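ping. complex inputs:
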Amino acid sequence: MQIKTNELINFSHYCSENSLKFPSERISNLISFLQQAQHDNYERDISFIYSLLPSNQEEKKKLKELILQYFNLPIFKNKDKYSILPDYKDERIEDFFNDNSLSRFQKLADEIIKEFGEIDFSRPVSNNYWLNQLQNSLAFLDSVSFFDIDFDNGLDEIINEENRNYFITQLNQSILERVSELRNQFKDPYIPSELNPKENLDEKDFLFTDAEERRKLLKETRNLGLILANKFVKYTKSASKGKLLFRKTIRKSLKNGGSLYDIVLKPKIKKKPRLILLCDISGSMALYSLFGLTLLFGVVQRFRSVHTYVFIDGITNISKELKNIKFNNISNILSNWNDYVHVDGHSDYEKSFCDLLNEKKINSSSFNTLLVIGDARNNYRPINKETIEKLSKKFQNIYWMNPEKKQYWNTGDSQFHYYQGISKKYSEVRNFEQLRNFINSINFKKVIK
Amino acid sequence: MNNNLTLKNFEENGYFADQELVDIVNASLYLNKPILIEGPAGTGKTFLAKTLSKIFKTQLIRLQCHEGIDEDKALYEWNYKKQLLSIQTEKDSKNLFTEEFLIERPILQSLRSEKKSIFLVDEIDRSDEEFEALLLEVLAENQVSIPELGTITSKNNNLTVLTSNATRELSEALRRRCLYFYLDYPSVDIETKVILNNIENIDEEKAKKFSIFSNFVRSLGLNKPPSLIESVEWVKYNHSNGEESLNSNIGILIKDIEDQKIYIEKIKEDNANKNQ
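pong. complex structure:
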């Protein structure tokens, strides 16, 4: 074991300062394992920290960052996503795809910046702006030109395309590093976090995510839907334990001459969630309604008995659509937006909730929980207090996720204060972190009666 | 059990992995703790347990979890019919709760096995939360309590492997007792090795090309990306039949009509880009 025990304990303190806590049992386990492992490689010890301490995927991600900050050692898997094709005539290409290719990319990045000419790095624009400028330069295009070969084979073409992408991401990274170094000469005081800005995806506003990030987040959102659905189930014991079903037991014993060989027990049925989900899909909701719909999708995937509605100026039941749709096609619901317009296409909370209360399915059975995703912007239409009262009577628990910034609540045509009063829990939900916290904080099992 | 496994041990048995996985298996052997493996379907979670049983030349005891599984199916059960017959035939008072009437289920089987064994709890996320609680005692103490018989402790240090597809959040208590590993889709390097191992008459260069290609297919954002075994089978069939086209037999690779459309469009798109 090369790493000192003290250092490890200091590191665990550092982690807990950054809100990542490990039970002491895990740390002592790690130390005892490292002591017997007897290898003399410091980096290997660090990689053991990474693989043994965390107990789920999130902790792993966070730990990776903390290790980089504390020990200044990156943990990465060597993924060589390239294959050298025989058609490549340029010999330089092999050097770039070698193990020690990093310095070569740095050199190339330097050359590209040099050939671009004079750059005023003191301008107040982002690093990505310069990257974009440089990408259009002749030197850049020239350096990726050795991938411009015609292939007659489909497989080779795709491999070439992947090689090119890999090459470009590597080069971009080197250029960005170099640019931020150069730009920091004009910055004072020196701020390390700006040298290497890392945005946490979980805390990024849904509105500002790009397609790739959105896909990642949507997948996680669907998983949250599954978790949410599970929260609303009352688990019961299986049929092999419990009350004796006397009539059937006697009936079965007849074939054995009255001996009770087989006993039949009363099966207990799992209690399904009595839950209604509403999602506003009007224009003001923008991208947030896509995340809302994905959450609904996750819930419906787990429990088909859940009622889900979308609303603009009147509600539409989309449980059926969500059941039959594929994950990739959820956004189709939003593109068929006009199918869900009842009157004029401006959101009307009053009418939507009236509709909900008048729904036959809901009126005749006892649903006790309502979850709403909406911004409560009512386009200056009146809201009837009676409807609010009826709502709070009908549903024991109302949860509300508002995608609008808290400072804008109840300004302009936002009528959120009416609903704040009757909601058991309400919160601003603009990013994944907030969404997860909201879902985690719903504690439903106690509420079932 | 031999305490220091190497990558070579795994590769000799046809399992290709990162060093990180080998490390965590070694750690689990040393600390005598179960391993919890999460990851998408078809990345070799169950196969890992099978490989471990091959490496140690031991028995593999498998418990497949499903909704509604309970202690009767997982732990033990009293043979009710036999008990009843025994009362009727012998007619004198006899203890009905003895070994004679006990039916062993996988957990008990692994605890009482004479030889060391690998105990696999497959797809733990499909079981109910109550069942997780039942497992806790087995995982932490290697023992189990049966009211009529007392506590049964394992004679051997069995290696336990739990797998999960992460469709449900597992409880903190369960996670705390395990070592954690996330098994993702294989990297190009590993997939190349698998292809070379599974397919005859294929050269390394071609194998690498195919593994880059399947990595590319997985990055298309399909509803169900092809698993390792699917992509290998596809390459195997196409290679042995001398098929060169990427659009042939995609039923082996992608099993969803929407995904197939995306795939075909993407391949065409790439070809069109080139032709411009």
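The longest strand of chain B covers residues 59-64.
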